[in-house]
Amino acid sequence: METSTEDVEPSVAAEGVTAQAADGAAATPVVPTAIPPASLSPSRAGDFMQCPLLYRFRVIDRLPEKPSEAATRGTLVHAVLERLFDAPAAERTAPRAKSLIPGQWDRLRESRPEIQELFADDPEGERLAGWLTQAEQLVERWFTLEDPTRLEPAERELFVEAELDSGLRLRGIIDRVDVAPTGEVRIVDYKTGKAPRPEYAEGALFQMKFYALVVWRLKQVVPRRLQLVYLGSGDVLTYDPVLADLERVERKLLALWEAIRTATETGDWRPRPTKLCGWCDHQAHCPEFGGTPPPYPLPVRAPESAEGAQGRMGPD
Ligand code: SF4
């Protein structure tokens, strides 16, 4: 889902760094106009794996992005599914859930005024009506996949944060946590898109294993089940992790974080063009599309230091 609070919240300013002159010559100390990343969320980890330059634009430059209909619909549907559990179990019906949509849509528009522009060119409201109907269909489909009258979530929209031994902070928002009477934990995430083909399931599970790692670090409990509920296609993808899975994810995240730190210090954020570029809001700033990134807002280390940092990179 699209979230903002789970995203990186940098808090540590770089120290002892210098601006690199255009000719690579010695540099003078500068005051950074941004702050380096201090933690990692599944979304931003995914950004870096997709394209390091995209990560830079989102986390360091914080370039604005246009709201999209699909992402906004996802946010709306998530809000409805979360709020439905406020009702007594027997009243968690599809009509009740659909009745929540107008109010949640109003709340969303109030809290994020930029969303207004989504339908600014739709004065008759026809496109908005179709969009809301699609949201209703997604909500209805959920009832074919899960039965909320038989669920009592332990947590909804749970913000989690844990620090690894290395000092790396992981954070994120879990859509739903179910805890069985036996104490077994199930982590559930709703997706308003379609389930990936089997060969891409591992990528889809990365986010869930990330959350499982955070829960394990926080509670010393390995979640019994990870569950992705795809409302777009009506599929449920589950995975029962073992400790070795979480240890593997932790090693992967540490390697990723090392690569992010190196790029942050050197200012070397490579574009990695893929077919996903079609969804990127930043083509105008991307060299792959003839654009120029904005001036790097952080100091960079001198070249020899940068090479040293690069040399430390690699799989753990
Ligand atoms: S357009 Fe593609 S290559 Fe360029 S920043 Fe966006 S995702 Fe990366």
UniProtKB/TrEMBL annotation:
Pfam families, alphabetized: PDDEXK_1
UniProt entry keywords in alphabetical sequence: ATP-binding, DNA damage, DNA repair, Helicase, Hydrolase, Nucleotide-binding
Stored InterPro entries: PDDEXK-like_dom_sf, PDDEXK_AddAB-type, Restrct_endonuc-II-like
Gene Ontology MF, one: helicase activity
Gene3D superfamilies: 3.90.320.10
Single Gene Ontology BP annotation: DNA repair
Chain ranges of the PD-(D/E)XK endonuclease-like domain: 39-287
Superkingdom of the organism of origin: Bacteria
Coiled coil as UniProt keyword: no
Region of interest (Disordered), ranges: 295-316
Protein name: PD-(D/E)XK endonuclease-like domain-containing protein
The species this protein was found in: Streptomyces davaonensis (strain DSM 101723 / JCM 4913 / KCC S-0913 / 768)
